[in-house]
Amino acid sequence: MQRDGTRTRDERAGAPADTGPAPAVHRPLRQVGLAGLALHLSLVLWLVVLRPLPVAWVYDANLTPLASLRSSSAWQVVGELVLLAPLGVLLPLAGGRPRAPWLPSFLRTTGVSALLATGLEFLSSWTPGHVLNVDHILLAVIGVAVTHAVLVPALRRLVRERRPRARGPEGVAGTVPQAPKASKTAKMTSLVSPPVAVAITPVPAARASAEPTP
After folding, report:
1. Taking CA atoms, which of 15, 83, 125, 204 is between 20 and 30 Å from 159?
2. CA 170 – CA 178 distance, rounded (Å)
């Protein structure tokens, strides 16, 4: 239903209206997540992406998935997995929704991390000593996905359990003391028959002696 009283197209078609509450946003968690995300991306840009490498020659660009793992050491693979792994926690934290479902959150996090990893990889290919390598993007997304799957459900459960709840004076969450309600019979009686004021007139006292008859 719109503000002017007319129905929307979905309501006219008979579709049920979405009356469910929107997921609550925890603003302190969102601010911490945005600050941590900005700090981590700044460090990655400064220390890895935009720093030139003093090498005499470089490999050609690799566009074949998992083709460069044969010539890479274990430390290099671990470094690529860990490089963007904090995004698996920082991206959901920046959303600020501790009650968000796990699967949509996982898909959003991996999708955004894939876009960020692709952008960082293309940006690093313009830096001297760096070449475009699709394996760097794949390893970065795998690291983010594993971090999200391992840490985020437990952290959200911990935040939900420690979140303070408003308690009333009797110790029950969200209760407010109410005045005692009148009975249904008293309400109906007061509506049907309003109270009538009765005037009481004083009765004259009896005379001490009877009047003489003529």
Report:
1. 83
2. 12
